[in-house]
Specification:
The chain is an alpha+beta fold. It is built from ten helices and 21 strands. A hairpin with an 8-residue loop joins strand 13 and strand 14. The radius of gyration is 29 Å and the shape is globular.
Length: 644
């Protein structure tokens, strides 16, 4: 059965040799781009278009046409490729339509070797756009999936290629348009078949073109930056004929693959691969786990968005069909009208049930993956109740990222995704001690205490993941209100000085940090790092500010804003504990300060907006379990390492 996708929805690909059919009603250009783990097209050699129709594992048509067939061999793609984007564009200079508003909704379908459709997608809702990314094939946990994209570009092919990070996008767009106008008409030949032993059968004369070798000689190295939800596919995974996908990591010991099974649109639960911790790209296990966690985050965001989109589509279709049935006075009443409404409701229920089935399947897979990933996390990525903390030792180098809490969505609240941020921090943190939007069963005093506990837990984690001497913490507590929560920091001896109190203490700490920022900035810009004063502490600094704005005059406020803007670039970071309502007396002067900080709450709250898919993520802080001594143990270990 063919799966009809809506924008944003994905579907597994059970085979590796595919044909993508495109029908637009008017001549359009069809091409494809290959992108790496960052979602970036590295150069013109990664774009298949009429002037260069053949790439390893990919072939497109040489001219504009109303109907196209693109051939893809996923096994023959270079190992550095993690995404194939199928693009459509209207040809220029031919007197044809200039936007997709004048063209029937383009229809796309992905078919297998037998010609049976796997998925189909109609690109609706286009207006002034003259280029569109129709579909994307992408790797996730060693398997390939297809996603309905439908992202249009009013600026045409140049804007589309530029959005994918291609250098010289406008020049290549002009070259593609010129090649399409002067290209010779020809059909795209199907990809050459393979023998049962896996060897390519080279076609003879007149059998669809000269032989070719689609395998690259040297694979490109993966990048440290992670953007999408791709993961590597093991060499030879997938197999010809649509067999089960091998999900083992390329650098893991390979096990014998089971015999190929008949291709099906989606695997049954018993046939789904077992998740593996670290099943993502990266030079180290830490980097692979980081990329895998972000892949889980992206998958959860997209599968929830696809479900919401499918339900919205089902509801709108129900309304249209009921309106159509009621528009005829003869069928408004009586058995005819009732039957029309019943059929429309059954279609709606069937669509939503199918969407929910896909959602539950994807969520179950993510939950299974989370259960194997969480136990494998290192201290920087682990929750405070993770056993790894009981064997904590001060590291010799800082990690790639840090866990600040968990994120989850209402579709499956028990599925928690670690919230990881890269180190060094690019912006300061703000723990909001005010009443959260979702409400909490805590009074004002208890909420402020919880906010300070959260700040101390974050500070302890930042200290714990850095080598001794490379990161320090300072505290401003003007009225001494945070003495209780600060006890783990003050009692362990990890602070170089007691928390600053009173107006003079606040001024001294801020002036000292502002001086440090100024001197380091001047040394970096002038290339004179050796000329810094010997008494200047160049270690990373975290300044905890409690009970802001109490105890801050205008000069201190100016210094604080300066540190928030300029400090992160030279290793000075803010961690503020404050209620924004308490600072209303300053008016809008503090708005830039709040916007420059990453807001977190001491209790679960759905305040993190995701504009790309329209979700409101619920953030939950990571705190030590009640009664646990893990925080003191970790800080004592760190303090002992500093003393030694």
């Amino acid at each position: 059965m063919t799966a009809e996708l809506v924008r944003g929805q994905n579907h597994p690909l059970p085979m590796d040799r595919l044909e993508i059919r495109v029908s637009a009603g008017k001549p359009v250009l069809a091409g494809a781009t290959l992108s790496d783990v960052q979602g970036k097209v590295r150069g013109a050699e990664w774009v298949a278009h009429p002037g260069s129709p053949r790439l390893p594992g990919l072939e497109v048509a040489r001219q504009a046409a109303a109907d196209h067939r693109l051939v893809v061999d996923l096994n023959a793609l270079p190992e550095a490729v993690h995404r194939v984007s199928v693009l459509l564009a209207l040809p220029t200079g031919t007197g044809g339509p200039t936007s997709f508003a004048s063209v029937a909704a383009p229809f796309t379908a992905v078919t297998g070797p037998t010609g049976a459709d796997v998925v189909s997608y109609s690109i609706t809702g286009l207006g002034t756009e003259s280029a569109v990314v129709a579909l994307e094939l992408y790797r996730r946990q060693g398997a390939w999936k297809v996603r309905a994209v439908g992202q249009g570009y009013a600026g045409g092919l140049a804007d589309l290629l530029g959005d994918q990070g291609l250098p010289g996008a406008r020049d290549l767009a002009d070259e593609i348009q010129a090649a399409a106008v002067g290209g010779a008409a020809r059909s795209v030949a199907p990809a050459s078949p393979r023998t049962p032993q896996g060897d390519r059968v080279r076609p003879g004369p007149g059998a669809g073109g000269p032989p070719r070798d689609d395998r690259p000689d040297v694979p490109a190295a993966p990048s440290r930056q992670f953007v999408g939800d791709e993961a590597p596919i093991a060499p030879g995974a997938g197999g010809s004929g649509g067999g089960p996908v091998d999900y083992t990591h390329p650098r893991r010991k390979r096990t014998t693959r089971p015999a190929p099974a008949p291709a099906v649109p989606s695997p049954r639960p018993s046939e789904r691969p077992r998740p593996v911790a670290g099943d993502a790209t990266g030079w180290s296990m830490e980097e692979r786990l980081y990329n895998q966690v972000w892949g889980m985050f992206e998958d959860l965001a997209r599968t929830a968005a696809a479900y919401r989109s499918a339900v919205d589509f089902a509801d709108s279709r129900l309304e249209r069909e009921i309106d159509a049935a009621l528009s005829d006075p003869r069928s408004r009443t009586g058995p005819t009208g009732s039957e029309a409404r019943r059929q429309a409701q059954e279609k709606r229920d069937g669509l939503t049930a199918q969407a929910r089935e896909v959602l539950d399947r994807d969520l179950d897979q993510l939950i299974a993956e989370s259960r194997v990933v969480e136990p494998a996390l290192a201290p920087a990525f682990a929750r405070w109740d993770h056993p790894v903390w009981h064997g904590y030792r001060v590291p010799v180098e800082a990690p790639l990222a840090l866990r600040l809490g968990d994120l989850h969505l209402p579709v499956r609240p028990e599925l928690h995704i670690p919230m990881l941020v890269r180190l060094p921090l690019e912006r300061g943190l703000w723990v909001d001690s005010g009443r959260p939007g979702s409400g909490a069963e805590l009074d004002s005093a208890a909420l402020r205490r919880r906010a300070m506990d959260t700040a101390v837990a974050h500070a302890a984690r930042l200290l714990a993941v850095h080598p001794a001497g490379e990161f320090t913490v300072q505290v401003i507590d003007p009225a001494g209100a945070g003495a209780g929560p600060l006890a783990p920091l003050t009692g362990s001896g990890v602070l170089d000085a007691p928390p600053a109190a009173g107006a003079q203490g606040v001024a001294d700490v801020l002036a000292r940090l502002v001086r440090r920022v100024d001197l380091v900035q001047m040394a970096v810009r002038g290339g004179a790092a050796d000329s810094l004063p010997p008494d200047l502490d160049t270690a990373g600094q975290l300044l905890i500010v409690n009970d802001f704005p109490h105890g801050f005059d205008d000069r201190a406020l100016t210094h604080l804003r300066y540190l928030a803007d300029e400090g992160p670039a030279v290793g000075v970071h803010l961690l503020m504990v404050a209620d924004r309502e308490d600072a209303r007396e300053y008016g809008p002067v503090l708005d830039p300060l709040w916007r420059s900080l990453l807001r977190m709450t001491p209790v679960p709250d759905d305040h993190l907006a995701d504009p790309w898919v329209g979700h409101a993520w619920t953030y939950e802080p990571s705190l030590p379990p009640p009664g646990s001594e893990v925080l003191r143990y970790v800080l004592d270990q760190f303090a002992a390492a500093r003393r030694s």
